[in-house]
Amino acid sequence: MSPLMLGLLAGVVNFGILLFNVGLTRWEPIAALDPNVFSHHGQLMILVWGLAFAAAGISDDGSSRIWFAFAVEKAMYVFAWLSWMSTHDALALLRASPQDLSILAPLFMSIYGPVDLVFLLAFARQGLMAKDGSKRKKR
Q1: Which of 61, 53, 51 is closest to 6 using CA atoms?
Q2: Percent of the chain having pLDDT more than 70?
Q3: 12, 60, 66, 71: least buried by Cβ within 10 Å?
Q4: Where are the domains of the chain?
């Protein structure tokens, strides 16, 4: 995948939090499930990271190693998700949620970790490709 496509896709996915918190109007249910990671500020920062991913993709000529930093950022979220999942029963939360907007927060908590793992791997791959590309340019 090109840096442009990766950056734009990652940005769009990060902006997907706006679906789960209904345009920041329902940020509290997500924050209540993990206030350390998904406070109001934390949810806003997800949007900032989305902008950073998109900007990196737009400006990257294929030699940027910024993708390694993005991989570390995603690793932190994957670790937070694994930690949260080890102490919570996401399936029980989903089953207990009525079929209205209250299901969005537990749904978000159930899926963000695997999604971030995919991007962690994609970002690391892009960083490795950039590293290999810069070695070839020096020769």
Answers
A1: 53
A2: 95
A3: 12
A4: 3-138
- CA dist 18 and 47 (Å) reads 9
Buried-exposed string 38-61: b where 16+ CB fall within 10 A, e elsewhere: beeebbeebeebbebbbebbeebe
Phi, psi (5° rounding) for residue 27?
-75, -25
pTM for the model stands at 0.90
Q: How far apart are CA 77 and CA 117, in angstroms?
A: 8
The Cα 88–Cα 91 span in angstroms is: 9
Distance of CA 124 to the CA centre of its chain: 14
Q: Is the Cβ–Cβ distance between 10 and 52 less than 8 Å?
A: no
Distance CA 135, CA 139 (A): 7
* Three-class DSSP labels, 80-139: HHHHHHHHCCHHHHHHHCCCCHHHHHHHHHHHHHHHHHHHHHHHHHHHHHHHHHHHHHHC
Tell me the pLDDT tens digit for each residue of 94-138: 999 887 898 999 999 999 999 999 999 999 999 999 887 655 555
